[in-house]
From TrEMBL:
Xref: InterPro entries: ArsR-like_HTH (IPR011991), AsnC-type_HTH_dom (IPR000485), Dimeric_a/b-barrel (IPR011008), Tscrpt_reg_AsnC-like (IPR019888), Tscrpt_reg_AsnC/Lrp_C (IPR019887), WH-like_DNA-bd_sf (IPR036388), WH_DNA-bd_sf (IPR036390)
Source organism phylogeny: Bacteria, Pseudomonadati, Pseudomonadota, Betaproteobacteria, Burkholderiales
Protein name: Lrp/AsnC family transcriptional regulator
Biological source species: Rubrivivax benzoatilyticus
Boundaries of every HTH asnC-type domain copy: 3-66
Ranges that cross the membrane: none
Keywords: DNA-binding, Transcription, Transcription regulation
């Protein structure tokens, strides 16, 4: 899909605040509401915009423990990788799941209320699966930055 300066302006604005009304979005993008609506629909239909979400505060909602977890499997065949990925992706405590190379097979970002909640997650996802060889967790003591925005080309002026 070819994107132009208007598309990039709309994407930049939506990354800042996806709750903008179409009217407000059009005003800020310096385009008509009809054009903004049409363009955003095209970006959604083309898969450029995957979804629009609200970003919540884990601490204020009782998910104060964040862990980055490296997982190494015993068997790395495609069916084993797919099965593990499906298992962890289906768990609400797993916020992000990446297959990585080299090193471990997966890196996960998980949220739990506390260490007991993390232990329950370990039991649920890693201990009962005989194919998990190694689990290495890193616990966040401070989140210095969290920004899900993607860098975009500067809009032409």
């Amino acid at each position: 899909m070819d994107l132009d300066a208007t598309d990039y302006r709309l994407l930049e604005l939506l990354q800042d605040d996806a709750s903008l009304s179409n009217q407000a979005l059009a005003e800020r993008a310096h385009t008509s509401p009809a054009t903004a609506l049409r363009r955003v629909r095209r970006l959604v239909d083309g898969g450029v915009i995957e979804r629009r979400v609200a970003l919540l505060s884990p601490e204020r909602l009782g998910a104060g423990l964040t862990a980055l977890v490296e997982i190494t499997l015993d068997r790395q065949g495609a069916e084993h990788l797919d099965a593990f990925e499906a298992r962890v992706a289906g768990d609400a405590a797993v916020q992000q799941c990446y297959r990585v190379s080299p090193g471990p097979d997966f890196v996960l970002v998980v949220h739990a209320a506390d260490m007991a909640g993390y232990h329950a997650l370990v039991q649920r996802l890693f201990t009962q699966d005989a194919n998990v060889r190694n689990v290495k967790a890193f616990f966040s003591v401070k989140r210095a930055k969290f920004d899900p925005r993607l860098p975009l080309p500067a809009p032409a002026r």
